[in-house]
Write a structure and sequence with these properties.
By secondary structure, the chain is an alpha+beta fold. 30% of the residues lie in helices and 20% in strands. The radius of gyration is 61 Å and the shape is rod-shaped.
Length: 1463
């Protein structure tokens, strides 16, 4: 059964006062009370009747279907409630049950008074005697209670020594040893005694001739509850307030020590510091007249009303004790009465007294479960009261009749509605039952319940009218309001059961079961009684604002009852208004109660709440109300939370909060925070903000008045949260200012800070507020590490040796070098090193106009072990502020920074996610929504605003890495001066600062100022292939900086150690600065065992370089050699000795002229060398230019028109066509110049060294050579060689010329006139392709003009033709042509020759095998290499170099023949 005192059947319940006795703990007492509550309904059929003949008036045998409903209370009802008896008998406790703990019987003595206990062999028996003594004291203390019983719970029987229990003490075994009927048997025994004693109470009522109504002057003292508890048991304990109930103080022992029961919690709750009265336990000589206020008790008798002259009667003077019912003293006043006449009784007065006695007896029958007898008595009493216009008792009788009928219907007993309950008109039950409402009713509903349901609304209205009727007797506001609330609860139960009075509705009426469904605001027009009618009747119970009519407690009880009914009906907004009034009522009462409580313990009220809580020993601020440790959170906190929820207050979380202990955990995950923000945003759009703020202010005042520290913290933060905008403002976009003033903001945050500080000092460290802005952290970024400590990720394939055997300094600069390129900024910024601190920037926002004191803040990360620094700061008003924090990862792995853990002063330390993007909910068009259902429905729908995406920083933590720095270098201030072509070596010493981690990977890369212009020139689309080749050559093979060759084992730096490396620098034009970049790492494993990725760090040495000119090439030329070169000249040049004169001919050499300038202010010695051992040395003075003539070998190139190669692999194509529009002739000339220049440079080298000043040496840059076509003709050797010689067959010499024409005169080519001679022409094909030659011989006269030189027909005769076509000459082969000639005169003749290609040679037709090979090559080209099929080579050659044409070659020099006459 519900413990609600506003149940419709509350007048039928029997109140039983439950008190602790002996040594017992609070939690065990509560569990024992719970066991009793499980058997609070006792059926009469289970009760054994009392055997005494004078105690059988309420015998259970008369109506076995009845039941007794116990209302077990653990508090003494306030005097204002007891004063309503006997008008409302159910308000007085009729039974007293004292609970003792059986486990404490053998622990310690309950009392030190030996005289009271006598001799007892065991501790348990001694304590049982003590319990019996205390039971007797309880009987003396509460004499009006009918039965007194002590229950010893968890009592274990001793088989060896059985203790006899005194009368009035019963034992209950533990739960595990109890039977199903154990508790029921105990309650039946108590009920049997109660029914027997009720006979005495009924007889005492029957003996009275006058019964007073509530609020009326008593006809006999002590009847209306004025002396419900005996005051003479302990006159010193009489309270100084009318609200106080006397306490019991047993006699002290001889030692004078006070009874320990006075300090334990085993006495009723309002004993020590009842907030509604003083708690002085000693008599006081001060006047005891209470101050008139809202807490004072209204006068209930004429004796309580002050006299007209203003003198105050001593309302607390002790009265004679009222004996227990049935005693002789109690029967003396049976015939005493008072009347207004001069000593006579009139009939009306006698009938009134008789009618009221009948109603009282009927009320006792109702409580005793004899509902049929009660109905009979009540009908008779109602008839008498109606006949004499006793309106109050008439209404009370009708109310009790309704309760009887409801209980009979619940028990399944058919009844007939009494005639007294029908309307005053002539309608009968039969006519009522024919109404349209009942014709449409449920046919399964019993007829008697339908009849009762039909008359209920009108009957209840009539009862309220009787209670409210103005007459000589006026019903006080408390019973009137509670009766109306009970009536509305009855109608609400019927309404919730679809307007039917059936079994389900009766269960709710009798047991107060909560409704299974919550009503919405949708109309329920077809259900009778309608909700509007119930609400109209209910608000008649709303208490008046006059403070003298109701006490604060009574006013709170009435308002809470109204709110409960409104909540069941679904009128949540009406309920919230009533609860708001309830809070206002409680605040004033609590403040005065706190003041009185402070005064009673001798503390000034201005001393605050700490002293009160300390005295009472409470730890959660509930001391002033004498509440349990969990009462605040389980009762008041939920009560105020429901009030705030009704008005749409933006609270921290909608979920039900747990107990306020340290074990309570609130989830702050991203999902929970996002759901919390959305819920708060929906709540902000619901209701009216100003009303919300007023409600929160009232809740704060209420919590301060309790005092409830947790409530003060909670509602103060809710006020700030509700007043805030709840947005994440962007730059100059949303207005995030709160709607309350700055002064109120300061007051709230000061309140939070002070309350939290007070809680800390009291040891309540778990009490704290929730921070009011979910968008506190707006961003977290990682500051970039210093360049020397930044770890750069690399793939395993970039390691030297992974795909190539070259180390870093030998890598082709055109090949991708991952160590030179700029690292991936995003990857670098997301990488940390284990054991090394990193700096984070945390952006915090404060949209309020107050300073936020952040006690500590640290980063929140998940993944690898991470340690964050903790700092504090003051966050200024209405701003975003950046705070720097450091964090150190402790181990390698993946790390994610997801937010910050912040402890704001007075608030709970919690995690805040990162919300970097501006966010504001979408403002929807106002749509009419009624009640809280609209808010709940909005929360279930998809959130209309923009998505909330929390940010995080994904970081990668690598294992510990060394830190290498440049310790020293042999260069002065990292600068060097060098000459062009000079090479210098310097050393750099590296030091490992790490004491635990070595550097086992060292990679060197270089950059200089010449690389940029060269790279730019290479990317120039207008550059010719020869220029591109030159740029690439300088970039690839003439690097300004490089590492000298070292063993790979020396690439290691031990922890704390050093290593020295040698570098070489080359002076070249444009070199002004350079950088040595060292990439180092600790791999820990061989390079081949690296899984996927590794990280390196960089340390750089910047060099300042000054390059001065040394020996410059000013001019050059190439000249052919005319004639033979004397052998001494070759010897002088350092050439090897030649054995034959012919080897020194001009066929193999040409002259190279170089103008060399000494640009350095020091003597220079220049040395030029050729491949064949020729060397020339020249001494050049400073500033002078010397010409050096140097013979160089001539060059033969098989294919001088081949494409110019590319050193850059990305530019290596078969044909490179210049982007400029040039003719094929120019293209052929460019290619010839390129190839012949390259051949010359391969065979030639030059060096220099200083002869004065510092010793320097270097190489001469000869790549400045540029060849003109004339120079090419002097250098080149033709593809087809023509050697002409003359043979005399009659000569004695047998020597045969070798096919070379000789220069100069007197060379042996002498023939004689008129004699036969032979001209021998040797044609040599130096190419690989066959040639179809046509030979033309051209004899001419020597030393003659051209027109005369060719007139030789009469001077020179030949056999055959001078022009003839020769057969095919294969590649790398030669042929001879001999022609007979006869000179006809003396003289000198020049015989020259030319060879012309008769036709172009074409390859023969491809054979089958060759064709297959070609197809295979195509397959490889298309499928394997992945390129497209190559075009026709001849077509491409024609496009680049023009169509291939027939060529012609001329003899380099003519063969001079001397004709003489033979002597």
């Amino acid at each position: 059964m519900s413990l609600d005192s506003m149940l419709p059947v509350a007048p039928a319940r029997v109140r039983a006062l439950i008190l602790p006795i002996g040594q017992i703990k609070r939690d065990r007492f509560s569990s024992f009370v719970q066991r009793l509550n499980e058997e609070h309904v006792v059926h009469l059929r289970d009760i054994t009747p009392d055997g005494r003949p004078n105690r059988n008036m309420f015998s259970p045998l008369a109506f076995p279907d009845g039941a007794i409903f116990y209302d077990l209370i653990t508090y003494i009802p306030p005097p204002s409630h007891l004063a309503l008896a006997p008008f409302e008998l159910f308000r007085e406790p009729l039974a007293l049950i004292a609970i003792a703990d059986g486990q404490e019987l053998e622990n310690m003595a309950f009392s030190k008074r030996q005289s009271a206990n006598g001799y007892a062999p065991t501790m348990a028996e001694r304590n049982i005697r003590t319990l019996y003594q205390e039971l007797e004291e309880l009987r003396d203390t509460y004499p009006k209670i009918l039965t007194h019983q002590v229950l010893i719970f968890d009592y274990a029987l001793h088989t060896d020594n059985t203790i006899s229990m005194p009368e009035g003490i019963a034992t209950i075994p533990p739960v595990e040893n109890s039977k199903r009927t154990t508790m029921k048997t105990i309650m039946c025994d108590i009920s049997s005694l109660l029914l027997a004693e009720m006979t005495t109470l009924a007889k005492s009522f029957e003996g009275m001739t006058a019964i007073d109504s509530p609020g009326q002057a008593p006809t006999r003292p002590g009847l209306n509850g004025a002396s419900w508890a005996s005051d003479d048991a302990n006159p010193a304990a009489r309270r100084n307030s009318q609200y106080a109930v006397s306490t019991v103080t047993r006699s002290a022992s001889t030692s004078g020590a006070p009874d320990r029961g006075q300090a334990r919690m085993s006495m009723p709750v309002p004993f020590k510091s009842l907030p509604f009265g003083s708690s002085s336990s000693t008599p006081s000589a001060r006047p005891t007249t209470p101050v008139r206020s809202g807490l004072s008790n209204p006068p209930t008798t004429f004796d309580d009303i002050p006299s007209a002259n203003g003198s105050n009667a001593d309302v607390t003077s002790p009265e004679p004790p009222a004996p227990r019912p049935g005693s002789a003293g109690g029967m003396k006043d049976k015939v005493s009465m008072q009347g207004f006449g001069p000593g006579g009784l009139n009939e009306r007065w006698r009938n009134k007294g008789r009618g009221r006695v009948i109603i009282l007896v009927g009320s006792l029958y109702l409580q005793a479960g004899r509902w049929t007898d009660a109905l009979k008595e009540l009908v008779e009493g109602a008839t008498v009261a109606k006949s004499i216009n006793d309106h109050l008792w008439h209404g009370k009788a009708l109310e009790l009749i309704i309760v009887c009928l409801l209980l009979l219907g619940w028990a399944g007993v058919e009844f007939q509605v009494p005639t007294i309950c029908l309307p005053t008109n002539d309608k009968t039950i039969s006519s009522i039952s024919k109404g349209p409402d009942f014709e449409e009713g449920d046919p399964n509903q019993p007829k008697h319940l339908r009849n009762l349901q039909n008359i209920l609304p009108e009957l209840l209205e009539r009862i309220v009218g009787l209670y409210s009727r103005i007459s000589g007797e006026q019903l006080p506001p408390l019973p009137l309001s509670q009766s109306i609330i009970r009536f509305c609860s009855l109608l609400t139960a019927i309404h919730l059961c679809e307007g039917k009075l059936d079994k389900e509705s009766l269960e709710r009426i009798v047991f107060g079961k909560l409704p299974t469904k919550t009503l919405t605001t949708s109309p329920r027009l077809t259900i009778t009684p309608p909700r509007a009618q119930i609400a109209t009747l209910l608000f008649k119970a709303f208490p008046s604002s006059a403070p003298e009519l109701l006490t604060t407690v009574d006013r709170a009880i009435i308002l809470s009852g109204i709110a409960a009914v409104l909540g069941s009906l679904g009128f949540h907004r009406k309920k919230a208004m009533v609860v708001r009034e309830l809070v206002s009522v409680l605040i004033g009462g609590l403040v005065e109660a706190r003041t009185r409580g402070a005064a009673e313990v001798g503390i000034h009220p201005a001393a605050g709440l700490v002293a009160l809580n300390t005295v009472n020993g409470h730890g959660n601020g509930a001391g002033a109300l004498e509440l349990g440790e969990g009462d605040i959170e389980h009762g008041i906190d939920a009560f105020l939370g429901l009030l705030c929820k009704t008005y749409g207050v933006v609270n921290f979380d909608d979920t039900v909060r747990g107990s306020s202990d340290e074990s309570r955990q609130v989830s702050d995950t991203d999902e929970k925070v996002i759901a919390r923000i959305r819920s708060q945003s929906s709540a902000r759009q619901f209701g009216i903000k100003n009303i919300k703020l007023n409600i929160l202010r009232a809740c704060i005042n209420f919590s301060e008045a309790l005092p409830d520290f947790n409530g003060v913290l909670r509602f103060s933060s809710d006020l700030l949260r509700t007043a805030g905008s709840g947005v994440a403002p962007g730059p100059r976009r949303e207005d995030a200012a709160p709607i309350i003033t700055r002064d109120e903001q300061v007051r709230m945050i000061t309140n939070i800070s002070k309350t939290a500080g007070l809680s800390q000092r009291l040891g309540l460290r778990h009490l704290s507020a929730e921070y009011w802005d979910e968008f506190l952290v707006r961003g977290i970024t990682l500051d970039p590490l210093s360049p020397t400590r930044t770890p750069i990720p690399h793939s395993k394939t970039v390691l030297p040796g992974a795909t190539t055997a070259r180390t870093s300094q030998d890598v082709n600069p055109f090949i991708y070098n991952p160590f030179i390129r700029a690292p991936d900024k995003a990857a670098v910024e997301r990488t940390l090193v284990a054991g090394e601190a990193a700096t984070f920037r945390v952006t915090l926002q404060n949209p309020y106009e107050i300073d936020v004191d952040i006690e500590n803040i640290k980063l929140d990360a998940e993944g690898a072990d991470f340690e964050s620094s903790i700092t504090s700061t003051i966050l200024g008003p209405y701003r975003t502020q950046i705070l720097k924090l450091t964090g150190t990862p402790k181990a390698a792995g993946s790390l994610k920074v997801t937010g910050a853990i912040v402890k704001v002063r007075g608030c709970r330390e919690r995690r805040f996610p990162i919300f970097p993007q501006p966010w504001a909910p979408d403002t929807q068009i106002k749509i009419k929504g009624i009640g809280l259902a609209a808010l709940e429905q909005n929360k279930k729908l998809p959130f209309p605003g923009p998505p909330l995406i929390p940010d995080n920083i994904g970081l990668s933590v690598i294992s510990a890495q060394p830190v290498v720095v440049i310790k020293s270098t042999t260069l002065f201030q990292s600068s060097v001066m060098i000459l062009e072509g000079e090479r210098q070596v310097f050393s750099v010493t590296l030091q490992n600062l790490s004491s635990t981690t070595p550097a086992d990977l060292l990679l060197f890369s270089f950059q200089d100022s010449t690389q940029g212009p060269l790279q730019t020139a290479i990317t120039n689309r207008d550059a010719t292939p020869a220029e591109l080749y030159e740029y690439e050559l300088i970039l690839a093979r003439k690097q300004a900086l490089k590492l000298r060759k070292i063993d790979d084992s020396k690439r290691y730096i031990a922890p704390g150690g050093t290593a020295t490396f040698d570098f070489e620098i080359l002076g070249k034009p444009g070199l002004t600065n350079g950088t040595i970049q060292v990439d180092y790492a600790y791999l820990g494993v061989p390079q081949a065992e690296i899984s996927e990725q590794f990280h390196t760090r960089q340390v750089c040495l910047d060099l300042t370089i000054t390059v001065n000119a040394s020996v410059e090439l000013a001019r050059m030329d190439v000249l052919p050699i005319k004639g033979d070169v004397p052998k001494p000249i070759w010897t002088r040049l350092g050439a090897d000795e030649v054995e034959e004169e012919s080897s020194l001919s001009d066929e193999k050499h040409c002259l190279l002229l170089l103008d060399l300038r000494n640009a350095w202010p020091s003597d220079m010695q220049v040395c030029l060398k050729a491949d064949d051992g020729i060397m020339v040395q020249e001494h050049i003075l400073p500033g002078n230019t010397n010409r050096v003539i140097f013979p160089v070998p001539r060059v033969y190139i098989d294919d001088p028109h081949a494409s110019i190669p590319a050193l850059n692999p990305s530019r290596q194509r078969q044909f490179v066509v210049s982007s400029s529009k040039i003719t094929p002739e120019i293209e052929r000339g460019n290619r010839e110049a390129f190839w012949y220049r390259e051949k010359i440079l391969e065979k030639l080298s030059g060096s220099w060294k200083t002869l004065s000043g510092p010793a320097r040496e270097g190489s001469i840059e000869l790549r400045g050579l540029r060849l003109a076509p004339r120079m090419i003709e002097a250098i080149k050797i033709d593809e087809v060689g023509i050697d002409i010689s003359v043979e005399d067959p009659q000569a004695e010499e047998d020597a045969i010329e070798q096919g070379h024409s000789h220069k100069g005169k007197g060379n042996g080519n002498t023939i004689y006139t008129d004699e036969f001679a032979q001209i021998k022409v040797i044609i040599t094909n130096r190419t690989h392709e066959p040639v179809y030659p046509t030979l033309r011989l051209m004899p001419s006269l020597c030393h003659r003009p051209l027109n005369v030189a060719l007139d030789f027909t009469r001077k020179f005769a030949w056999n055959g033709t001078l022009q003839q076509t020769l057969p095919l000459i294969e590649g790398k082969s030669s042929t001879e042509v001999i022609m007979g000639v006869i000179p006809l005169c003396r003289g000198e003749f020049d015989i020259s020759a030319s060879v012309e290609e008769t036709q172009l040679w074409t390859p023969p037709a491809t054979t089958t095998g060759a064709r297959e090979d070609k197809e295979k090559e195509k397959e490889i080209g298309t499928e394997v290499v992945g390129r497209r099929e190559r075009s026709d080579t001849e077509i491409m050659m024609d496009a680049v170099l023009g169509a291939k044409e027939r060529r012609i070659w001329h003899s380099r020099r003519p063969c001079r023949v001397c004709v003489r006459d033979r002597e």
